[in-house]
Specification:
Protein name (chain B): 3-isopropylmalate dehydratase small subunit
Oligomer: heterodimer
GO molecular function (chain B): 3-isopropylmalate dehydratase activity
InterPro entries (chain B): 3-IsopropMal_deHydase_ssu, Aconitase/3IPM_dehydase_swvl, AconitaseA/IPMdHydase_ssu_swvl, IPMI_Swivel, LeuD
Organism (chain B): Methylotuvimicrobium buryatense
Bound molecules: iron/sulfur cluster
CATH superfamily of the largest domain in chain A: Aconitase, domain 3
Largest sheet of chain B: 7 strands, mixed
Strand order of the largest sheet of chain A: 5-4-3-6-7
Distance between the termini of chain B: 32 Å
Number of strands of chain A: 19
CATH class of the largest domain in chain B: Alpha Beta
Strand content of chain A: 15-25%
Shape of chain A: globular
Radius of gyration of chain A: 21 Å
CATH class of the largest domain in chain A: Alpha Beta
CATH superfamily of the largest domain in chain B: Aconitase, domain 4
Largest interface: A-B, 38 and 23 residues
Number of domains of chain B: 2
Helix content of chain A: 25-40%
Helix content of chain B: 25-40%
Subunit structure (chain B): Heterodimer of LeuC and LeuD.
Strand order of the largest sheet of chain B: 4-3-2-1-5-6-7
Radius of gyration of chain B: 20 Å
Mean pLDDT of chain B: 92
Largest sheet of chain A: 5 strands, parallel
CATH topology of the largest domain in chain B: Aconitase, domain 4
Amino acid sequence: MSGKTLYDKLWEDHVVHTEDDGSSLIYIDRHLVHEVTSPQAFEGLRLAGRKPWRQARNLAVADHNVPTTDRDKGIADPVSRLQVETLEKNCAEFGITEFDMSDIRQGIVHVVGPEQGATLPGMTVVCGDSHTSTHGASGALAFGIGTSEVEHVLATQCLVQKKAKNMLIKVDGEVRPGVTAKDIVLAIIGKIGTAGGNGYTIEFAGSAIRALSMEGRMTVCNMAIEAGARAGLIGVDDVTIEYYRGRPLSPKGNDWFMAERMWQQLHSDPDAVFDKVVELNAADVKPQVTWGTSPELVVSVDASVPDPAQETDATKRESMKRALQYMDLKPGLAITDIKLDKVFIGSCTNSRIEDLRAAAVVAKGKKLADNIKLALVVPGSGLIKQQAEAEGLDKIFIEAGFEWRDPGCSMCLAMNADRLEPGERCASTSNRNFEGRQGYGGRTHLVSPAMAAAAAIAGHFVDVSTEANQGATA
Amino acid sequence: MRAFTKIDALVAPLDRANVDTDAIIPKQFLKSIRRAGFGPFLFDEWRYLDHGEPDMDCTNRPINPDFVLNKPEYKGAELLLTRENFGCGSSREHAPWALEDFGFRAIIAPSFADIFYNNCFKNGILPIVLDAGIVDDLFNELTEGYRLTVDLETQKIVTPSGREIAFEVDANRKFRLLNGLDDIALTLQHADQIHAYETERAKRAPWLFG
Ligand code: SF4
């Protein structure tokens, strides 16, 4: 018999019951809750007279609707305010811990989870949010769910699921300087497409993945969903274990030693068989820039906007044309000639301390280009903000002309006041470049934090991995 | 979810075909953060003469005296008798939420829109498909105080004259509805297994249960 994949191990470890039709009742170790997808679920509990199965396994935080300035004044938009207040009320009523807007621990749910040790290796983690895949970076089985499932998890601590297939994406070799986790994952999506991972759980492996910090690994798993997979995974190693040592909710004392021993098993066996394997050479990856309205429409920064006429597949050709029209781009235009209006550094993809440091290195001692109307830096959590300020990163950004904001989802999806105006073009470190995602009519180019910062300084995209820019990024 | 076994219910006639979910609950109410409380806004545009908004107090709104559900003789009706393709249009689950909140337990029609039909079962409402001719008969028979008995166990409707009408329902759905089992309730049938799993897991990973 062949060995097991990490996904097989995590799955088997959480099966409570299996039905005749192959669906299983899976135990959920950690449920994260935010304000947008939870109100009807709590209401459902209330109507049925149910209580959370295990209060302590839930952790809530408001992130999508929160303002990133003048927090003390509250939330101006009444609809947003009501959603946030509803979360607070529900958490109080059902005895669930919530980090509210004034709490230093508040931030984007997928940043807060690992930071607090609320999501740990070996766990099953769910949240009413597709980017729950982020938490797979620590060897946890993590995926997004819908509102009715949120209610189901609250009430039963379980979910009915069918097992997905196993995919391995192996990235070996060494990346060149200036190439980051974001570039690796964008290159992967460019290669397999946004539907490439449909029906699979993707495990990311190989020396280039091993070489990433936990922050970088989270960036990669965060975008597994953009490759069509509900869950992304990375096996546990010393980097993982060191990351979790001493986190507020990490196991303590003897529990820590037990946990460490258990977590060390959390990797695929050498003889495990995957249903699909994709390989990538890290040395080939250059800084990536999306040019269209889907994350798979991506090229290297030294390339130019592709020509739909070269595309043989008719459906793809049409979608390329539509994307170019929406993005107001012409085939053949050099990516480095694309001029920008706004820059957004933040989101659950790239708002961790390492991301801010990478952007700050580029911005240090420089000024925003004249054509940049607004450049936002939005840390992923209050604690990251605090850390960045302790390192003086805030001053670097402010002196360069960036705005230094309070933590939240912000312009990743523009549910609060931070947004693009129609026609505006943005270099963004977020994960979705869909039409209107960052504001009605807005145009989004997904890039890494260093690329976003460099674009803010130059006013257009620049290759942060070339010699000329090397001084800033090394 | 409330179980459905047998009801003896006052019948309200809604003599229209293709009643869509936007008519059942207009779109402005989807902004709500709630799942309950849609009852006062059921058929909002037909029931009231003004424009409804979420969270409005409906007690003093001008009502449309011609709309059937506003007539005193249908107050307290739990069974809605209507025409074909009921519940067409958007998939909003707010539609059965509103019907249920208003007090309807069952709906009789010659046909239902697919998604709506499914959503009813998730929310404790029994949608009954009857032959168009039989539905016609019921509409014709209906006079003030007209009641029908609906027995899900035997899958029979009994009219005031004693006529028995059989109806079809999928066995699995019938089982869930008879027992008031929603997905959560079904999972809770495995509560002992969940507890056993937790006990066993707590030995291996005590930090998860501290
Ligand atoms: S930062 Fe963006 S992608 Fe992440 S949870 Fe918030 S809205 Fe979703």
